[in-house]
Amino acid sequence: MRILVTGGAGFLGSHICETLLAQSHEVICVDNFFTGSRRNVHHLLAHPDFELIRHDVTLPLFVEVDAIYNFACPASPIHYQHDPVQTTKTSVIGAINMLGLARRLKIPIMQASTSEVYGDPEIHPQGEGYWGRVNPIGPRSCYDEGKRCAETLFFDYHRQHGIAIKVARIFNTYGPRMRPDDGRVISNFIVQALRNEPITLYGDGSQSRSFCYVDDLVDGLIKLMGSAPLLTGPVNLGRDEEFTVAELAALIKEITGTRSAIRMLPLPTDDPRQRRPDIGLARRELKWEPSTSLKSGLEKTIAYFEAALSTHNDGELA
Ligand code: NAD
Ligand code: UDP
């Protein structure tokens, strides 16, 4: 198959491109390089089945493909809040453009949705049936509400136009090829630890997240795309083991052996208190199990950052 991956030069997108090529698919990677970079797909550029196109998904795209992974959208709070209007446009207009393409070509399309659609949840762990608690007017809303609206569009195109859709609700995922300046918690803590700089703990660190290693996530995404058409989702994909942010900092300190101290900073507005997926649906329907423990995933990610920081400066990696 020839497969379009939007946001393909980003963290998750580059791993998806790599896996699809390894499975002998042709890949068209589309990215505007806002948070992604050519460096993430540099090793794929010489591959005869790989094509890279600089393009913004808020503009229509005309290509001939057999399936779409719609992953374009900045995912780190500092980046998606940098230009919140563009973030909403990317989710909403980007979804309309990619769904239009899927409709014309009569092909399946996957949406990279997010655990952020649950907002600051009152239900714990979060199952797909929970409708969420999202502030529509706060600094995170451009991302959360943009992704919620994209889900609405996916289901309306499915009901109205019969498009085959797959909606993945992705929980916090980490691994190699996150940018050192990505701003999300795992890359921040690892880079700070490796540089013996203070580890920036927001709030008192008692808020929780559940962290999934990228290889496990990509395995789940590919299983979801290959699943029966009836399984539209939304399907939660993440690892159902929960850690406080303070526990995460302690684990990264232990693995790296850093001299870094902890620096407490204010908790950002609307930062969710707790988050853990119920992944019963993915286990049952996809036979999916995220098998990489946080410790072993962190060890691989730390090894990546050690090598990356010693060979490149930040500007080159960003
Ligand atoms: P990322 O920032 O590394 O990747 C996003 C990619 O999209 C980048 O390459 C960026 O340049 C590109 N992009 C942004 N706006 C675009 C536009 N208008 N047109 C074309 N390309 C554009 O982030 P990521 O972690 O790889 O996230 C990828 C997708 O997965 C996003 O849609 C994100 O919302 C979703 N997601 C990620 C996580 C996670 O934990 N990593 C969790 C939930 C959802
Ligand atoms: N966080 C932190 N220090 C950092 C970056 C993030 O304590 O340097 C916290 C953040 O406040 C949140 C959690 O870590 O409670 C996860 O943040 P991230 O931005 O990675 O993901 P999200 O909040 O979108 O789940």
UniProtKB/TrEMBL annotation:
Which one Pfam family would you cite for this protein? Epimerase
Annotated GO molecular function terms are:
NAD+ binding; UDP-glucuronate decarboxylase activity
Sorted UniProt keywords: Cytoplasm, Decarboxylase, Lyase, NAD
Cofactors named for this entry: NAD(+)
| Localization of this protein | Cytoplasm
This protein's source sits in the domain of life called: Bacteria
The segment(s) forming the NAD-dependent epimerase/dehydratase domain are 3-227
Its GO biological process annotations read: D-xylose metabolic process
Q: Which residues form a coiled coil?
A: none
Q: Which GO terms describe its cellular component?
A: cytoplasm
Protein name, as recorded: SDR family oxidoreductase
What taxonomic lineage is listed for the species of origin? Bacteria, Pseudomonadati, Pseudomonadota, Alphaproteobacteria, Sphingomonadales
